[in-house]
Design brief:
mainly alpha, 11 helices
C-alpha cells in the first residue's frame, strides 16, 4: 500500500496535532501489555509476512463486519444503507494501519496519528475525513470487542510466511499486544479525564 495515495491517511502530515498522551504514558502502557524489543522485532517480521497478504486480511475483516449488521451500520447511512465509497476509503487506511502496526516506530508521530484514528471513531471527527453521511460515532464497546477478531484472524496469515511455530507465535503475541495497546490509546477521547 502506498501511504501518500491513501485518501485521508495523515500519519506524516506536519499539521497533525500532538497527542495528549505522553511518551511516558505510552511506555507505561507498553509495560502493562508486556510489549518490548522482542515484540518490535517480531512485528517487523510480521510486516514482511503480511505485506503481500493485506487484501486477503482485509477481505476476512470486511467479511466479518459485513456479516454483522450492527457493525456494518457504522459504515452506512443513518437509514442503514452501506456506503461503498466510505467502506473503500476506510479499507485503504485499514490496510495502511496493518503496515504501520508492524513497521512504524511507536514514537510521538505515531502517537499523534493514534489520536487521530481515535477521534475518527468519535462524534468529534467521524465521517469528516471522508465527508460520509453515516452515523455520528462508533461506541467504544465495539473498538474494545474488536480486539479479539482482529487478533485471532491474523494468525493464519502469519503462519503462511513459512516461519516455525515459535516465530509465528511470537509474531501473533506481538500483534495481539499491539492491537490491545492501540485500542487502549483509542479509548482516550472516549474516557477523557478518566483515561
Amino acid at each position: 500500500m502506498n501511504a501518500p495515495a491513501t485518501p485521508g491517511y495523515t500519519h506524516d502530515d506536519p499539521a497533525l496535532p500532538a497527542s495528549p498522551i505522553t511518551a511516558q504514558d505510552l511506555e507505561k502502557l507498553k509495560a502493562t501489555v508486556l510489549f518490548g524489543p522482542d515484540d518490535e522485532a517480531a512485528l517487523r517480521t510480521a510486516g514482511e509476512v503480511l505485506n503481500g497478504q493485506i487484501d486477503q486480511v482485509l477481505d476476512v475483516w470486511y467479511g466479518f463486519v459485513g456479516s454483522h449488521p450492527h457493525l456494518l451500520a457504522y459504515f452506512s447511512t443513518p437509514s442503514g444503507e452501506p456506503i461503498a465509497e466510505y467502506l473503500d476509503r476506510v479499507r485503504a487506511r485499514f490496510g495502511q494501519w496493518i503496515i504501520d502496526t508492524c513497521t512504524r516506530p511507536y514514537d510521538e508521530r505515531w502517537l499523534a496519528y493514534q489520536q487521530e484514528i481515535a477521534l475518527r471513531h468519535t462524534a468529534e471527527k467521524k465521517n469528516k475525513t471522508d465527508q460520509a453521511d453515516s452515523v455520528p460515532h462508533i461506541p467504544l464497546r465495539y473498538l474494545i470487542a474488536f480486539i479479539y477478531p482482529i487478533s485471532a484472524t491474523i494468525r493464519p496469515f502469519l503462519a503462511a510466511g513459512g516461519h516455525g511455530e515459535e516465530q509465528v507465535e511470537a509474531m501473533f503475541q506481538a500483534w495481539f499486544k499491539s492491537v490491545t495497546l492501540q485500542v487502549a490509546l483509542w479509548s482516550q477521547p472516549y474516557a477523557r479525564p478518566a483515561w
